[in-house]
Recover the amino acids of this structure.
């Protein structure tokens, strides 16, 4: 099970690209409305989450995904449930993926990037305390995957697909959506 966390102010494309790509790959993914079942993106796009934190079974989680966006990322970090879910994945050798401001605000805020190669929204690198910041579309450091920004959302999503479903499935999704990036 993959849980993608949504909080009011999330960056829409950073949430929807992984949802779209992973569901095309037939991954079992649920969106979690951290601030309520109806969540509004940073650009006013409303989205109904599949479930709320009370309906999440962390023991079944293979990955937790954190989209960026402001104030969405701050709202994610303010949630004890999100921090607990991320820590659960770290403690149980599960994947944690974060893009844009989320690597800095959430993962950096939790001290999870020390000595790891990571990327985030340009100018937010200082929040990734102790990380080896890279200007790449995405970085993989063991089970932590970070993405740069909205413009890298499909690269990030396809990387998540590859680790969860294999390179062949990710390549098929890439061809199906005619991704040329």
């Amino acid at each position: 099970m993959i849980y993608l966390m949504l909080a009011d102010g999330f960056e829409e494309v950073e949430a929807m690209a992984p949802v779209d790509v992973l569901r095309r790959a037939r991954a079992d993914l649920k969106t979690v409305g951290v601030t309520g079942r109806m969540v509004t993106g940073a650009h006013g796009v409303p989205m109904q989450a599949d479930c709320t934190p009370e309906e999440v079974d962390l023991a079944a989680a293979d990955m937790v995904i954190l989209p960026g966006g402001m104030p969405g990322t701050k709202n994610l970090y303010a949630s004890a449930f999100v921090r607990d879910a991320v820590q659960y994945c770290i403690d149980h050798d599960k994947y944690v993926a974060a893009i844009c401001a989320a690597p800095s605000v959430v993962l950096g805020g939790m001290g999870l990037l020390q000595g790891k190669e990571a990327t985030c929204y340009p100018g937010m690198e200082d929040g990734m305390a102790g990380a080896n910041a890279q200007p790449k579309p995405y970085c993989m450091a063991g089970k932590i995957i970070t993405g740069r920004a909205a413009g890298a959302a499909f690269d990030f999503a396809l990387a998540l697909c590859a680790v969860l479903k294999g390179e062949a499935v990710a390549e098929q999704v890439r061809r199906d959506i005619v991704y040329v990036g």
Notes: Residues 12-24 form the longest helix (13 residues). The radius of gyration is 15 Å. The mean pLDDT is 98. DSSP finds six helices and ten strands in the chain.
